Amino acid sequence: MIEKHKTLDFRTILYLNILLMLFLIFSGKQQVLMLSFLVAILTMLDIREFALTAKLIVGFVLLFVAHYGLDAIYRTIWNSSFILLLEIFIFLAQRIYPFIVLGIVLKRSKTLGEITTALNRLHLHKGIILSLVVMIRYLPAIKDDFHVITEAMRLKGIPISFRYAILHPIKTIEYFIVPMLFRSMKTTEEFSGAALVKGYEFHGTRTSYFDVKMTYKDMAVIIISTSLLTLCAITI
Amino acid sequence: MIDLQNVGFCYEGKERKSIKENSIFISKGEVVVITGESGCGKSTLLRCINGLCPILYEGIPEGEIFISNKKRSEMNIGNISQIVSTVFQNPENQFFTLDVLSDMVFSCENFGIEKEDIVRKLHYVVDLLQIEHFLNKKFSELSGGEKQKIALASALMLETQILLMDEPSANLDYQSIQLLRETILKLKSIGYTILISEHRLYYLKDICDKLFIMADGSVKQRYYGEQLVSLGDRFLHEQGIRGINLFQSDMDSNIHNKAHSPKILLSLQNISFAYDSEKKLLQNINIDIRSGDRIALLGKNGSGKSTLAKIICGLRKENNGQIVFCEKNLPTKNRNLNISYVMQNVDFQIFGCSLYDDLLLGNEKVEQIDVKIKQILAEFNLLNLIDEHPMTLSMGQKQRLIIASSYILEKTISIFDEPTSGLDYRNMKSVCSLINSFTGTKNASIIISHDYEFIMNSCNRVVLLENGRIAEDFPLNNKEQLTKIFKERL
Fold first, then answer.
1. Is A68's Cβ below 8 Å from some Cβ in B?
2. pLDDT at B368 (0 to 100)
């Protein structure tokens, strides 16, 4: 049978998400941003995706280069609001980047079974857990459905363009939403049936095949990242 | 093992009972198949046994069901699920997770089974179905048949002795159905009691001990053991049911290309296509599509059938080659004006709030459109539904609506992607009539299908795609060549 390499627990990654979000909202310091990225990239190293880690580091460095490059252009060559707009875009991208890294870590290292067990241990309401699980499970399917609908629109001769969407917003939404809703109704019905026969409503304590527990590594990551980010935000 | 006594069910809000007065007894170790036309109540009967009726699908139940001598009405769905497992039609929507291993253990985790016991069950099921090589795979890497096998494996994890299967072959190709057949055979040999609701009977004829035919919500006919072998296809067809002897299906002699001097409508010349630069999906495809052609486009999963169809109707652009229509190169963006495409899931292709609106959409500039829409709806027996919402139509009516739309623009070629998956014989014949009426002697149809019986009833030419190339292209004059392709190359 398959033995998985023990990576950081889902709850640790969830905690890091909240921690980074708070610090990146309340502190504008570049050092906090860099430390946030460092924390995120360490979780990536923990799942042993070294090639991807290298690519993500290059991406982050490029965003920094773009940020300072645009700043230099604005101050010396071209004093335009367009450059400012691009700078805002880069600023936002830099702040979203650590969350993308954490998202990839989750996607690559955690199964939905592990996530369900971890959420159960947080004593969240079953309804909330089921909503989260269904959302994660069906995001890829929604993307596929969206693609099929755009193809069907093209076959029907319905224009798919930014201009059409601006001029006819209600119609555009209708064309996308109506088939998607009917599709979702059927999917939800089938999914609920499968959930019931697989014991989702069973009133007992859920067990887990996978090792879902907080280890010393998790505690160390939580304590060190919280302390360092706090220190960084207060002192530097 | 399962004892149904006068079982009936009426869905909430419906005046008519979906099933009524059903009394069936299934002994331990039997494989029982329930068949009948769409809407006859097969799925409802299974839902009554596994408890989804009335727990998920609300309504009024009648009669009593005993499962392993326990009254079903006194059990909750959790208790029922521990003695009865269910496999549904669509494998996609019965997986909770995105990878095989975590889905297989999911139900055991929900029922609070200890890890050591889960590991033991996992070993048992993996050995039984020989699926160890799938364990670390994601569902996106599996074929339809493999997914259905994993769905079965997940159901077996609870070690119930009873297995219900609701049209398990509906979305599968020929080889995947053979795989399913082998799996069911194996489960039967070790004593599982299996109840299958199914349209396709051919793969079950040597396995099933009892065949029940349902009509209007009740089991009307019962056949046991030896009797099954003597059942003729004609007898089943008369009742709207698929044949039991697949490769004995007769060809429809009316569908041979009757165009007096078939002219080339569309010519695919050296079409090549690749999603990535390393592997070409299609290479130098050359086909002349003539008036009166009803082409069965065959090939294994992933052989590029759908991609080729999408290139023909302009949803994908070829990397090399060209498509010639009426002796002129037909650019990608104009292809949908001449070629229609009926998707496997027609729900995605309906955009209007009424049948009239749906046909008007995209055709606003056509002269006398109002008269034309009414004429065409009358031709397709849909005029009385002109103001209805298209989503209230049956699948066959939706297919007709999409073809009606292509009539307005006088499209000459229509592509159908798996139009008969999950259809009974009567509805399959309706699709054959639709293709027949569209094609006639002036137009042409291309049909992607894994349905042998349907191909024999609707096509007059076969094109086989293999390794990105056209491996066979022949008129369907006799069934031997097609049978050989189904058995050896699909």
1. no
2. 86
Report the interhelical angle of A112-121 vs A126-156 (nearest 10°): 140
> How far from chain centre, in Å, is Cα A53?
16
Q: Is B224 helix (H, G, I), strand (E, B) or coil?
A: strand
For the record, the structure tokens of B260 come out as: 């007096």
* CB-based contact, A127 to chain B, within 8 Å: no
> Residue A1: pLDDT band by 50, 70, 90 thresholds?
low
Which residue type occupies B310? K
Q: Across the interface, which of B81, B111, B363 has its CB nearest the CB of A204?
A: B111
Q: Would residue B245 be called left, alpha or beta, if left means φ above 0 and alpha means ψ between -120 and 50 degrees?
A: beta
**Coil, helix or strand at residue B109:** helix
B 402-441 near A (Cβ less than 8 A): 405
Residue B259: pLDDT band with limits 50, 70, 90: low
User: How many angstroms separate the CA atoms of B45 and A120, rounded?
Assistant: 34
Q: Is B391 on the interface with A (CB under 8 A)?
A: yes
Residue B99 DSSP code: B
- CB pair distance less than 8 Å for A182 and B99: no
Residues 6+ apart with CB under 8 A from A121: A11, A212
Region of B240 please: left (phi>0), alpha (psi -120 to 50) or beta. Answer: left
- The DSSP H or E segment spanning A194 is helix A169-197
- Interchain pair A155, B336: CB under 8 A: yes
Calpha distance B3→B73 (Å, rounded): 13
How many CB atoms are located within 10 Å of the residue B17 CB?
19
Judge: A158–B361 Cβ closer than 8 Å, yes or no.
Answer: yes
In chain B, whose CA is at the least distance from the CA of A202? B78
Asked if A210 reaches chain B (Cβ–Cβ under 8 Å), the answer is yes
Which residue's entry shows tokens 């364990």?
Answer: B135
Residue A43 three-state SS? helix
* pLDDT, tens digit (0-9, with 9 covering 90-100), for B468-480: 899 999 998 888 8
